[in-house]
Design a protein that fits this description.
about 325 residues; two-stranded antiparallel ribbon; 10 strands; hydrolase activity; Alpha/beta hydrolase; AB_hydrolase_1; AB_hydrolase_sf
Length: about 325
């Protein structure tokens, strides 16, 4: 096991991330002993909001949400294993949906007070962490969550929906197999400086909309490049191999659920978010935004407004019920 790269110094050119105040660092130990890095922002006595980022990112990808929400709430963000300032397991078996769920549970156990509940928001793989957690830790959902937000994410059919290249319907299965092989190989590959330009264009095509600020595309690629190839590869294999025709079950996700999808999302298209909204047992709201996969960066004001609305609604319900 080795320590992950310190992403903060590698992504300092993105103004919102650069201007964030320092959070209070919290070390979390996963069930299998992996060290996870978390930070707490805002008022220590504030209502907690927990943020889980996507693959090849780090907690600073939530820069807009941390800056806004921490003015009124206690914001807890963490780096997944293999990302940011969390440790990078070298064993192939240390990456799975079981680990993704257990790591989130460890973060909640460490950062929340006994009996305390939070709104938990996940973007992309962070959303997969939430639904995997709910599927595996059903008794913990109502113990630790007042509500959840699933942003630009999926519960299955990852490769069938990803929009790399359009192909005729008879070749759809070939496209799925090819895309899976490519994403696993690409995710684990080192990044020689000679391919920086093409690599950035490809990452940007998947991660952000065509009309996104170039600074956002650059920031997303810097996060990608700062992520260890071991961590990238481990999670790419996990998602490709385990998010096939069988979808993560949502019947345990009984708390109010906000679902946000983006109209031009190439990586996890809007159809994925619509399916989640249809399957969620306690859908609070389904929101379609303009832009690409990184709504938290491309449409931060709208995302923040809906997150605040979810927090206000669940805390109001708690006051009434008590």
């Amino acid at each position: 096991m080795t320590s992950g790269p310190r992403s903060r110094s590698r992504v300092s050119s993105f103004a919102p991330a650069q201007s964030l105040p320092s959070g209070r660092a919290v070390e979390v130990r996963s069930r299998d002993g992996i060290r996870l890095h978390a930070e707490v922002f805002g008022r220590e006595d504030g209502y907690p909001i927990v943020l889980a980022h996507g693959i090849t990112c780090a907690l600073r990808v939530w820069a807009h949400q941390i800056a806004d929400l921490s003015r009124d709430y206690r914001v807890i963000a963490f780096d997944h294993r293999g990302h940011g300032r969390s440790a990078v397991p070298v064993r192939r078996g240390a990456y799975s949906l079981d680990h993704l769920a257990a790591d989130l549970d460890s973060v909640l156990e460490t950062t929340l007070a006994p009996g305390e509940r939070a709104v938990i928001a996940g973007h992309s793989m962070g959303g997969i962490a939430i639904t995997s957690w709910a599927e595996r830790y059903s008794e913990r959902v109502t113990e630790r969550a007042d509500g959840v937000a699933l942003i630009n994410t999926t519960t299955g059919d990852l490769l069938r929906n990803v929009k790399l290249l359009p192909v005729p319907a008879p070749l759809a299965n070939v496209r799925v197999r090819t895309a899976g092989t490519f994403l696993k190989t690409f995710g684990a590959a080192p990044l020689p400086r000679a391919i920086h330009g093409p690599n950035q264009r490809f990452v940007s095509m998947l991660a952000v909309g065509r009309d996104a600020d170039p600074a956002i595309a650059s920031f997303v690629h810097e996060l990608f490049a700062a992520t260890s190839p071991v961590g990238r590869g481990g999670w790419a294999r996990t998602l490709v191999d385990h998010l096939g025709p069988r979808h993560i079950e949502l019947h345990n996700l009984v708390v109010p659920t906000l679902v946000i999808g983006s109209q031009k999302d190439r990586l996890l298209p809007l159809t994925s978010s619509r399916r989640i909204a249809e399957a969620a047992p306690n859908l609070r709201d389904f929101v379609e935004l303009a832009g690409g996969h990184c709504a938290i960066l491309e449409r931060p004001d709208e995302v923040n407004r809906h997150l605040r609305g979810l927090v206000e609604s669940v805390t109001a319900e708690r006051r009434i019920s008590s």
